Request: fold
Amino acid sequence: MKTLLYALALSTALTVPAMARPVTLTTNMNSYGGDGAYLALYVTDAQGAYQGSLWMAGGKSKYYTHLSDWYRATQGNPAEINGITGASVGAGRQLKITLDLADALFDAGYELHIDVSAEDMRDSPSEVVVSLTTQGAGQPVPGRRYIRDFTYDM
Amino acid sequence: MLRTLHKIPGLIAALLIVVIALSGTFLSVFPALEVAQAPAQSETDLTVATLADRVVLAYPGVEQIRRAPSGQITAFYFDGGRPGAMVIDPATGQGVENYEPSAIQRWMTNLHRSLFLDDAGRLTAAAGAASLLVLSLSGLMLTARRVGGWRRIFSRLRGPLLGRLHVELARLTVVGLLLSSTTALFMTASTFGLVPEDGDPPAFPTEVSGQTGAVPGAISLLRDTPVAALRELTFPYPVDSTDVFTLKTASGAGYLDQGTGVTLVWMNHGLWQRVTETIYMLHTGHGAAWLGILLGLMALGAPVMAGTGVILWVQARRTRPRIKSNTAAGQADTILLVGSEGGSTWGFAATLHLALTQAGQKVHTGAMSQFTPSRYKRAQRVIVLAATYGEGSAPASANGFLDRLAALPQAPEIPLAVLGFGDRQFPEFCGYVADVKRVADEKGWSQLLPMATVDRQSPQEFARWGRDLGQALNHPLELSHSPATPHSHVLTLISRRDYGAKVQAPAAILRFAIPNAGLLARLTGHEFSRFSAGDLLGIIPEGSTVPRFYSLASGYSDGFVEICVSRHPSGLCSGQLLDLTPGQSVQGFVRRNFDFRIASNTKPVILIGAGTGIGPLAGFARGNHPGRPMHLYFGARHPNSDLFYGEELQNWQADGRLTSVTTAFSRTSARAYVQDALRADSARVVRLIGEGAQVLVCGGRDMAAGVVDTLADILAPAGLTPDLLKTEGRYVEDTY
Reply:
């Protein structure tokens, strides 16, 4: 799918360009038998405290409340996803994005979360929660309901 | 204007509306199906607390319980890491079947709202809904205009079947179409964020007790909430002590502590949320299943109306000549208004339009019903060309003209010219045009030139009026118009039966074969029209271009074309017809005569005719089903000379197609007319009319006037008049 090169403004401490590297995030969806799903990809620290968003798949902000963990952390603030929003992802399809992520995000206890929601179906907050480590790169992680597997590659 | 507003979106959006309406009807069934299939809730006072306890017992890994507007309760749970969803029987908390959203419903929903094209499709579908709304409103206004006002919007319709079907369906379904289209537009606006929302859902509580383990049955808010009010109950994550119960009900939403069970945050739904939910319910039928079915059935009217509407448009285009280079009303210096019933006056208007345009004028030609003087900003003159419909009433394209003229505070300052079209054989020759002239005079509307008339489409009279008009406009104006006659066919005589020789009034029943149409004629719509008894057969005699009309004594299904003709002393056409021998032929065509028809019900029918007026009445009798009472009163000169259809009348009486036949002969010792027969039988006539009988009269004008007078006398004691019956469509005449 889309490959986007993106400099992420997580926080000044984490995005010094010299200490960043391109990371590809690949999400494969199940054939869950519904319309296109909204996905929020974001990072928390080890305590679960929200740090910043990586990607929002789905364009209509009125449905963001269904991405309930992300929404709880951000109150739906559009500034959090300004410029990192794309189309929703259909059943059985793949979402692939490439971002420049700060080295300091890895092996420091940070976790990547994916909230998923599809129309008229059960909301699935934190469907995927995966620790960001250099060893974990390239290892597919299964989702609970809508996501077949998720992989980050460096 | 109104007609354009109805026509243009109709033609463009017809296909789109068909798709949206049919898919909508399909979808309307689902809410009712869901209600029928959902396990019934027998305990009326069941609370969310009790229900949740039962579900937790059956599915320890439950994460959410949902209640649909249909009453269907669904539990979502994890069992050994695998997600599951079951439809729950509220009485036990046990699942009855796997919850699987219908794929066909989802597919149809996507077709219905977005044509599978996402946002672009949503906007297209919304444009379809908007067209449907415009069509419903403009159609309602057109109907009101056609029947003569809002109070008569449900009155009986006249005219061709297709037009009636279109309007009947509209009256039946317009309420549903208005509701469905407005709610559709609201929902689209809501999807695109154009409808105000009440703001964010309640903020997640910043502080929780940190304890876990409260069972639903112990939480007071859940104990106070009936299941009927439940929308969703979401359980806390099993391992997250900072998480909470999330409850959404019909009235609001909030968070409950998973340790203490206290309500941490609660917010009632705002006004806009309730408005949005209500509109969703009205549109989808989710929560109002029977309304949904009703709306779905009404939506079925839309595709049929799209079909009939397009056919009506094509038909109207065929009968009207194309007016080339028609200027907009606001730009034109000459406004040409046309009042036409069958379409021939439009032909004259087109000739005048062309001649005036060639003389350098900017001409706007439109129907008289579109009369709006305020739009004629640059106009120097108004010219009205109008025929007369029936006995002095407005022709179809002039509906409402007189009312609008009468309602003007003052007459337009620019002068008016009026030209009437008619047939001097009729007593109300140009009766409607005379009314137009009278009202214009009362308003003090100045005249460009004196009112004139054109008899039987005479090109000479039209040309003469054109020269007068040219004089008034200070430039020569030559109008050479050859009336367009309908596509005529060769009619070959099969047989003839002669009458009346003994009384020096030769007449005959002529039977022609129905012309065979070639494939090309059929494809181009030029085949011999279908016809019913009572329609008119136009015969174009040799040496003339103007057709003469005869009432048909047979229907298409009889398999032949039959008329009853008597020889007029100096008649060109009747003479040629009566000189025909079997095998010879004439040129002819059908003109439908929709007002002279047997009503489609089972009430009695009274047929009254004299002389050759028996023709269509015999046709009605031939086509009657035994069982429907049909009484014929027939006046002739002498039983041995002109008792048309004498043999058939006996047969039809014997097989029940005619209940009674009463004859009156003027040249026997009785010297009786058909009026006398009616008077002698007045008790039965009054009784039949009291039972709702329809009266059909065919014959000479004097006879018809005599019948009206006689029936007025007979019916007076019952408090009825022929005029009253005419307004109900129960007294129709075909006179000559």
User: Anything to note?
Assistant: DSSP finds 21 helices and 24 strands in chain B.
